[in-house]
Structures are given as C-alpha cells and as structure tokens.
Design a protein that fits this description.
heterodimer; A: 77 residues; mainly alpha; 4 helices; rod-shaped; B: 287 residues; 16 helices
C-alpha cells in the first residue's frame, strides 16, 4: 500500500516538477528576449517629453507677458 | 470561473477585507501625496507611488492570506473540487477577484493627478504610466501571495511568509551589495540552492533517490562549469538578486521612463505564481 502511494506521489510529483521547469524555462526565455530588444523599442522616456511640455508652457507664458494677456496667466497659475 | 469570481467578490465586499485593504492603501497614498505634492509642492505624483511601495509588505498579505488557506481550513475546498470546472479556472476566478479589490482604491488614486493638475503643471503621462506600473507590480505580488496562501491552511502562517518574502524582494538590491560577488561565493550559493531544491523534490515526489540524483547532477554541473570558466560566476548572485527585484523595475517608471521589459517581467511573475498555485491545488485535489 505504501509502495503504491509512493509510486503515485512519484508520478504526480515528477509531472508537476517537469511542467514547472518547462513553464519557468519559457518565461525566462521570454524575459531574455525582451531584454535583448533595443531600448528604442521597449523604453519611452517621459522626461524628455516632460521637459518639452514644461518648455512650451514657459514659452507660452513668456509670450503672454510680452503681449499682455493677464487672463491666460491667471488660468495657468 | 465567473461563478467563483462573483462568490469571492461577494465575500470580500460583505466582509471587512476589501474595506480594510482600501483604507490602508488610500491612507498610505494620501500621506505620501500630503508629504510630496502638498507640503513639498512637487508636481510629480509618481514620487508618491515610489514612497507607497513599502506599504505592499503590509497590505498584500492582508488581502491574500485567506484566499486559499481559509478554504482549506474550513474544508470548503472539497466543494470547489467537486465543481465541474478546472483548477486553473478556480485560481483565475480567485485571482481576478483579488485584482478587482486592488483596482477599486486605485481608481480613486487615479483621480489625484487630475486634481493636482488644477493647481499646477502635472505631466500626466508620467503619472499614469507610473500608476499602471504600480498596478502591475501589485498584481505580481498578489499572485505570489495567492501561491503562498495555497501552501498552508493557516492564514497567519500565510501572512507570516508573505511579509518577509515581499520585504526580501524590496531590500534585495540593498542586500545584493552585501552578498559575495566572487566566483566561489556565487558557486557556493548555487550549490546551497541545489540542496534546497533536493528537499523540495523529495517533498513533492516522496522519492529520495530522485531528489538526491537531481541535486547531485546540479552540483556537479556547477562544479564543472566553475573549474572550466569561473569568471561566469563573478557577480552572479548580486546580479540575480537585482534582476528579480519587482521594486527596482518600478523605479524606472518613477524616474520617468516607461519600460516595456518591466511590464513583461511583471506578467511573467504573475503567470509563474498562478501556475504554481494551480499545481499546489491540483496536488491536493488528486491525492
């Protein structure tokens, strides 16, 4: 009885281990592939866009100050 | 799966679990927003999310500790196994219920950048990019918590394991600086890992010969590669600890970079831990 139980545990455990190993290998390969891709494809740098956004805001305010548009200054704070 | 999802959501929102979780998360984010955005007058909402990260060590175990452990304790998992649905559907239903509970307070937090934008110049793509990464990081930790909950029938034990696991992951980059970066140190760490793997295999298969065999094979492979080219092991363990950190990848979003590889990593962590949860339940179901 104990031997049969051990055989069932061995079959089930081996299947579980094998499946876990296969899934882990696939996931590791996917991550390695993703890290190999060039940064231009996987990374989008907000800071540059944020700097451009802030510069455009600054330019807008500077032009308003020169031309005199108080209501726009009030809205932008 | 929908029936399991509805049942779980009903359980969370008819008990205090969802409300306590939401209260903690909103409290952490609120305090962070007060410190960074209001007192310090910093427009970057993503800094708040970086500050709140450590709170996951408390709130994720609270959310996930009872998801499967309680079922096992009450013996209601037998009812689940008798349903004409696959184990993976049970796990997915429970996981999506947890994600929904996690998403509710995040929807409230998502309004904060819009409120701050009324009083200053908030660059919304960075804020919402970081919020999306915050959600994915939390989803990955919830998947890990679900797996930990499936290992035991004691909720406290499940929470007690989940807290140090999350803390270890949080401090893994700092700890990596103290771990030996030498080739021999990394080889020793891999041999210890092979021994631990042997114990796991022995527990799963109840077969000592298989466990010893696989452990010895891995140890032999490590020793052979070490003597063939030891430079492969230099800095290996600190490198692995840094790469496995969920939080380190999140900080790239806080620094203003939307990194797709980090999102892919979070998704793979989710898939891996949900797969392990299914395996854990299947082992119990068919034994």
């Amino acid at each position: 009885m104990k031997q049969k139980y051990n055989q069932i545990a061995l079959k089930g455990g081996s299947y579980s281990l094998a499946m876990t190993g296969i899934v882990l290998a696939i996931l590791v390969v996917v991550n390695i592939f993703a890290s190999i891709l060039p940064a231009a494809m996987t990374q989008y740098e907000h800071q540059l866009c944020e700097a451009l956004f802030n510069y455009k805001q600054y330019e807008g305010r500077r032009k308003c100050t020169q031309k005199g548009c108080d209501d726009l200054l009030d809205r932008s704070g | 799966m929908i029936a399991v999802l509805k049942h779980e959501l009903s359980g969370y929102f008819h008990s205090l679990t969802a409300y306590i979780f939401s209260a903690f998360l909103l409290a952490f984010v609120g305090i962070g927003a007060l410190i960074y955005n209001i007192q310090s007058a910093v427009a970057n909402f993503e800094y708040v999310l970086g500050y709140v990260c450590l709170g996951f060590a408390v709130i994720i175990p609270i959310l996930t500790m009872r998801v499967i452990a309680e079922e096992r304790k009450q013996k209601t998992d037998q009812l689940l196994y008798s349903l004409p649905i696959r184990t993976s559907q049970i796990v997915m239903g429970k996981y999506f219920a947890l994600l929904t509970v996690y998403l509710v307070p995040l929807c409230i937090v998502a309004v904060y950048p819009l409120i701050f934008a009324q009083f200053g110049e908030v660059y919304l793509p960075t804020s919402y990019g970081s919020l999306f990464a915050f959600f994915m990081m939390g989803a990955a930790m919830i998947a890990a918590g679900t797996f930990i909950s499936s290992l035991t029938e004691n909720q406290g034990f499940a929470a007690g394991i989940a807290v140090p696991v999350i803390l270890l992951n949080y401090y893994s980059v700092t700890l990596a600086e103290y771990v030996s970066a030498t080739a021999s140190g990394s080889a020793a760490a891999l041999i210890v890992t092979a021994v631990l793997l042997g114990f796991v295999i022995r527990h799963l298969t109840k077969n000592q010969n298989l466990a010893y065999g696989i452990s010895i094979l891995i140890m032999l492979a490590v020793v052979i590669i070490y003597f063939a080219d030891s430079s492969r092991f230099e800095g290996l363990v600190p490198d692995i600890m840094t790469k496995l950190s969920l939080f380190e990848r999140f900080y790239t979003f806080v620094n203003g970079v939307f990194d797709l590889t980090a999102i892919i990593y979070y998704i793979t962590v989710i898939i891996f831990f949900l797969f392990l949860s299914v395996q854990s339940l299947e082992k119990r179901r068919y034994n």
